[in-house]
Each structure stands twice: as C-alpha cells, then as structure tokens.
Amino acid sequence: MYIRVLIGIMLWLAVHNPVVQAAGPVYVQACGGNEFTMALKSDGTVWSWGSNQQRQLGYDSSSAAVSFPTRIQSLHQIKDIACGSTSGYALEDDGSVWSWGRGAEGQLGLGDSQQRDEPTLLSLTDVTQVEAGVHFAFFVREDGTLWAVGDNQQGQLGDGTSVGKSSPVQVLGLSAVRSVAAGGAHSVAVTTNGHVYAWGSNSYGGIGNGGAGPPVTTPYWHSTLANIVSVSAGSDSSFAMEDNGQVWCWGVNTYGQLGFGDTVRRYEPTLFSALTNAASIHASGDYTHARLSNGELWGWGSNWGGKLGDGTGTDRHSPVQTQIEGVQFVGGTKSNFVLAGRTNDLLYSWGNGTGAVLGYGGGSRALPGLVTGTMAAAKGTATFSPVVLPSTLHSLATLPITVSDLRGYNAGWMLGVSASPFYWSGLDPTTGSSSMIASFPASTLTLNGASPITVLQGMEIDAVHGPKYLPGQILGSTSVPIIQADAGYGTGKYETTLSLALTVPMTVQVLQASPVSAYTPGDTIGLLAGTYTCTLTFTLTSGI
Fold first, then answer.
1. Would you identify the CATH topology of the domain 173-327?
2. Among candidates 420, 431, 418, 448, which has minimal Cα distance to 506?
C-alpha cells in the first residue's frame, strides 16, 4: 500500500514579489484614418489594425480586417506617424519618410498614383514632422520649409494652384514652420514666432479670412493671432492654441464642433472661453476634443457612434467631459472614433467600431475602453527551456526570470508562478504521515512535462503577419529563460503548467512542521527513493 504524505511546500516563485512587471515599450502616439488605426511605441515600432482594403495597414492581411494591434515589421526607429484616409506615413529618426496604402491622388509622394502594399521610402530627406489630410500630406523639414503632396482640388497644398501633385512641392511663402495640421480639404500651420496661416477650402469659413468663398491656394496670414504654439484642423473647422492654454476657433459649426453652445459659423478667429487651460486641441472631422493640463479630456460636436466618449450618442454644442482620466495624448482621426493614451501606458479607444478599428475585437462603444484584442481558446503547446534554480529551494525562494522568446513584442510582461504541494509514493517509516515544509537542494530538482497554453485574455498574432521575436528581458539579477511559446501569440494573458520532479534518495531540512509532527524546524531527515512531483502553474500577462 502506498501512502501519500503531504510535505506542504507551496512555492510562490516570483521576481522580488509574486507579480512583477517588466519595463517595456509603451504607446506614445496614435492616429486614425477611414476605418484603420496606427500607433507608435516608445521603441520606435509601429502597429496598425482595422480595415486593410487598400493595404493601409502596411502589411498583407489578404484584405481582411485586423482586429488587434499588429506590428508593421519593416519599420524601425520611427519617431512620428500620420494617417490619411487610407494611407499611412512614418518618419524615421534620420529624417527619412515611408508611405504606403492608397496612392490614387498621388498622396504617397512617390511620383505616381500607384497603391503601395508595404512602406516605401520617399526621396525627401531631413524631415522633422509628417501630417496627413484625407488624400494629401505635409512634411516639415529641418530648414523650416513645408512641403506638400497629393490631392489639391481645393488648393490645400498651398502651392498657388489647384493641380494635384504626386511628388512633394514646397508650400509658398512659409518659413520657420513649427507644425502643420491637415483637415478634410484645408490646412493650417504655425511658425516658430507664433504666427498662424491657413489655406485650401473656404466653402464654410475654414480659412478664417472674414467670410466663405472660393479656395485659397496660398497661405493666408492671421494677423490678429499671436503666441500660438499648436493648430488643429477638422473638416472646414480650425483651431489655434496659445502658449497660455487659450484656444481660438473658426469655420463650420453644424454640429457644434466649435463648442460655443450653438451651430453658428465663425468666419474669423473667435476666442473659445469655455476651456482656458488646454494642453492640446484635437479637431477630427465634425467633432473636437481638448486635453487639459490636469489630464482631463473634454469633447464637443457630433457624437454619432459615441465618439465624444461621454456614454451617449447625443451631439454636444458645448464641452462635455469624456469618461477617461490621466490622458497623456490624443490620436487624431479622419473618421468617427477616438484614441487616447493614459498615464498607465495603455491605449484606449471609443466611437464607431466599423472595420475592427477600435482594436478590441468588438463593435462601437460610447465609453473609452482598452485596445486589447480578441479572446482565444486554448492553443498550442509550451516548450520549457532549462531553469537554473537557487542553491536551496523552499517556500520563500525567489526565481529570477529572463523572458527569452515570447513570440510577441509587447510593452512588458508580468510573471506569476505558483505550485501545488509535493507528493511522493512509497512507504516512509521516517516521516510517517507528518506534514512539513522542507528545503530541497536544487541539484535534486528537474523540470519536465508540458501542457497546452491557455489564452486567458488576449489575442493571437495575425498568421500572415507572423510572430515577432522578443529579445531577452532579464527580470531579476539572474538570467533564467523559462518559456518558449509556439508562433502565433501576441499581447494577452497566458497560462500553462509543467512538472517539477525530485530525484531521491536525498536529505532535506525541515523548515516548518505541523504541531503533531515528530519533527521540529532545523531537523534533517532522509526520504525514500522514488519520484516526487508537484505541478507549477505559470501565468504570463503581457503589456497591451
């Protein structure tokens, strides 16, 4: 007869604490086009998701929509991104620019009107900022000049004509440009001395020159504005923010997107007094958001699809607070959804979810929610590489971990490891049925066995896009690779188990014994020959 005696060792192996998060790349910028989204991480990688009918995602998904963030593998060391309606742009650290997606209007700047399925390098150099309108784009260069390309029917390129361009041309009369904003068919720029210029469509007063009228094909100077540090452009609406947080606005106001409590157009810059401590202003089509210096986000204008983020679909002619706090940045879009990064380094989305553009596997939502991905069932088998254990293993031991290959490039991982009690088979006249916690010499322990990885919460990487190798990230002072998952796993939470076996005979030291035990802490006892096992459960949670 075999007697199973519980030694009572419950291992909580972790790094410093039961759960620790590793440092990793986080979202720093986001933008959206027509049913697609891009996001930039602090490590210079670019991620995209949503509709891909014109390869605006920058990789091949067989034209299928992608419902979770997927890396554009060919882009590295990127510092700025921009989204057109169905085209993407990325600025590299060295000042070079990549573009892809729809090119019918010449907006890719590659000298033709062809679609590009993958990021393609422009000939333009020394670029410091990229910005995109619906079917046109801008490039600010190191010398302060502004260059434009694409659709120009409304004079939105600012070169004095209404003829489209497939190669970048210089915007006339501008120097020392700080930044530029592109709307539906008009543009606004601010120079380093705080001056504001506007050009393009003026059908609804978006230029702000005193009335509505024909297109303005060269930059118009707003002589009444001063000390401006940033500008933003919606569809025929314009905004300029002073260095003290005051905002001026003008243009179309059909949905209350100017925020004055009415739907009356403004044909000249008008002071927006509802919010006085703006940190940034973001016009998107027929609605507007302002991020305040305290991290609050306020929105007004059209609320179709819940894009104001106040939990309703009701249009707002005056600012209402979006239900999100600690906002670090807001991602401008050309459609009916919004993106925002918070101080917790995670990305949130809300509004109309057509084309999987919100990045969480669901449809529209009127409140901010995490960009996460889809749920998946149990998938694949885990493979465990050798583990270097401490010289003595007991209930208080810690196990430093190196994440050597998780087949997914994420913002950091949390690792939790727990264990069932050790069991053994065979009579043991020494210990009888007494229970205790003992210290096991590491040299007697081996790891074996593998179970399917269960995806508890998260997503799988696009099969076409492929897995991304994650270089080793040491969590703790000792390098210990622990798990290699099959290709196809991305951001999410995963759990699996393996067996920890003891090779005996051996001697262990008693650390803790039950009151009825014949042993006391410090006693050294021998165990019978046999196989002693416990089951370890590994839970890994990636950054989103």
1. Methylamine Dehydrogenase; Chain H (2.130.10)
2. 431
